[in-house]
Amino acid sequence: MFWFLLIALVVVVAAVTLAVAGGGGDGAGGEAALPEAVHDRMAWPLPAARPLGRADVEELRLPLALRGYRMAETDDALDRLGAELAERDARIAELEAALAGAQAAAIGVRGLLERESGGTEERERPESQESQEQQDSPGKGKAS
User: Fold this and answer.
1) Which of 56, 88, 112, 144 has CB atoms 3.0–4.6 Å from 52's, for a disulfide?
2) What predicted TM-score, i.e. pTM, was given to this entire model?
3) What is the 3-state secondary structure (H, E, C) of 54-105?
């Protein structure tokens, strides 16, 4: 009797193991007993040939691991995003500095032109007034 129970136990354990593991046969519905495992990698890797855009970041789906996200792929994605943001910040600072320099140069040139044109007008004004007064008769110029 002992041998019969031992053999029955082995057969039941083997049958359950085959049923759970898929056993290589078809299930009741003609499908495989277990579905294919989903490949858990980044579905949309970040484009290497061009800068990242908002849509790239919105579509980014980081793969999951047993205890959260896959560290290597997550670190790579965050490092890439950080590097591109730093590059854009440096470019923005460079362009803002160039703009400030151009504006300062434009203000300097404008001020220089105003000083030159203002000084010339002040010098010309008395001469034109003197010539106008000389053309007028002495009585009319003093009366006004």
Assistant:
1) 56
2) 0.42
3) HHHHHHCCCCEECCEECHHHHHHHHHHHHHHHHHHHHHHHHHHHHHHHHHHH
Note whether 94 and 86 are within 8 A (CB).
no
What gap in Å lies between CA 83 and CA 85, rounded to an integer? Answer: 5
Residue with tokens 């136990």: 9
| Geometric angle at alpha carbon 101, from 99 and 102, rounded to 5° | 65
Give dist(CA 91, CA 79) in Å, integer: 18
Q: What are the tens digits of pLDDT across the range 81-132?
A: 888 889 999 999 999 999 999 998 888 888 777 888 765 544 555 555 555 5
Say how far apart CA 130 and CA 42 lie, in whole Å.
86
